[in-house]
Amino acid sequence: MITPKIPDLxxxxxxxxxxxxxxxxxxxxxxxxxxxxxxIEKPEYTVILVVIHHTNGKHCKTKEExxxxxxxIEKFDIELMNKRDILMHFFIGxxxxxxxxxxxGVEAEVIxxxxxxxMINIAxxxxxxxxxxxxxxxxxxxxxxxxxxxxxQISKQYKVYGHNDLxxxxxxxxxxxxxxxxxxxxxxx
Length: 189
What we know:
Blueprint: E1 22-23, H1 25-28, E2 47-54, H2 63-80, E3 90-92, E4 98-100, E5 119-124, H3 135-150, E6 154-162, H4 163-166, H5 174-179
Parallel strand pairs: 1-4, 2-5, 2-6, 3-5
Antiparallel strand pairs: 3-4
């Protein structure tokens, strides 16, 4: 008997944003579901801070490598940091795919040395202290932010910060900071 190959389904969190393919939590193998008490009741325009991170570890080149790295991050966040869920809302991997972490409409877990909960955290998979972030990955992050605005999950008056702007850390790495030029401006739609 031949078992049909099941495609790696893309999450509907990218729905309405065709340029942003998003691999869902289920499809990368998340061990948990987002806790209902962490969902934001009225998520429209609540996110005003977009915080950029790097995972400070290995880069991934394939979807399978990215999935393994994200599973390890989830395990670290839950078991070692004693959090209820993975900290990042989204991850951008070397294959130029977006992976759902907490996703849209879920309150940010307070990251050590930060206090804002009206933020969304986007992490680039890899260590960008000395490695250069791929330009395609930067463009994908910009598209993800625009998707969040279109879906009314991110305020049109959002601001983009590196994690190091909010806490004493090298994250997201000097190479990522040097290349990142996100437009945190007022947009009229």
